[in-house]
Amino acid sequence: MAKQVTKYESDGVTPAQSSYDEGSVLDGAQTTPRRIWWKNTSTASETLQNCRFRRVQSGANDGLNFLQIAQDSPLSPPGAPTLALAAGTELGIGLYQYAITFVTANGETTPGTQAEITTTSGNQRVQLSNIPIGPSGTTARRIYRSAVGGGQKKLVATINDNSTTSYLDQIPDASLGANAPTLNTSGSPGTWQTANITIGNMAVGDYAPCWMRYNVPSGTTQVGNPRRAYVQFEEA
After folding, report:
1. Whose CA is closest to 35, among 190, 155, 180?
2. Is the CB of residue 106 less than 8 Å from the CB of residue 184?
3. Least confident stretch, 3-17, 21-35, 36-50, 192-206
4. Residue 47: half-sphere exposure toward Cβ, Cα within 13 Å
5. Which residue from 41, 57, 123, 136 could staple onto 6, CB 3.0 to 4.6 Å apart?
6. For residue 65, which phi and psi values (nearest 5 degrees)?
7. Phi, psi at 110, each rounded to 5°
8. How much is the pTM?
């Protein structure tokens, strides 16, 4: 059975085009960095061996000279908040599980360390404190929670700063929002380079993200030429 790899755009969901092509890039121009994931989607237990991102020239143009690539550098998911019961009746009675994510300009981490609490009759709100503060680049934090009894976490609230450390949860289970993310999209480009990047093995279900851009120095002789090159994911 052939090994299968699926390619995704920067939201981790939308199918990507087959190559990275910015078309005509003028001298001295630098294109907006773009991130693409590849995922090992084999149905069998087929680990991809010695994988790498390889820069490839398309046609006879000079795009390979200017195509730069970088590994993704995501934030680590945060630690757990502190939970305490508070008087109220909005939540059910039983076990609740919480986790926090960091949000950046590029995306969001997966949920961090889980915290649990069990509500009792009349104490059916939860006071969160010590909500983790994110590192540089964090623009917001999101609180996710299970319904009563535990399980899938869904969005409770977004804290649109990187300083607030407390939140009173009085959101009924039926009013919870989207599911917590399963892919860490918070990353930004690491070191830009023109060498191929080795990323190692990929088990079934693993993702491999790569950033790419054109960086065209001023003073080149081919002004405005289409400079076509792309990044290829491959097994060595």
Report:
1. 190
2. no
3. 3-17
4. 6
5. 41
6. -65, -25
7. -75, 165
8. 0.85
pLDDT in tens, 135-169: 999 999 999 999 999 999 999 999 999 999 999 99
> Could you tell me if 180 and 144 are in contact, meaning their C-beta atoms sit under 8 angstroms apart?
yes
Is the distance from CB of 179 to CB of 101 less than 8 angstroms? no
Cβ count near 145 (within 10 Å): 27
So where are the chain's domains? 5-74+188-235, 82-175
User: Residue type at 38?
Assistant: W
Q: Which fold has domain 5-74+188-235?
A: Immunoglobulin-like (2.60.40)
Do the beta carbons of residue 58 and residue 225 sit within 8 Å?
no
Is residue 157 within 8 Å of residue 143, measured between CB atoms?
yes
pLDDT digit string (tens) for 183-221?
999 999 999 999 999 999 988 888 889 998 888 888 776
Distance CA 104, CA 75 (A): 9
pLDDT of residue 64: 83
CA distance 92 to 95: 9
Q: What CA–CA distance (Å, rounded) separates 89 from 145?
A: 17
Provide the residue type at 105 as one letter.
A
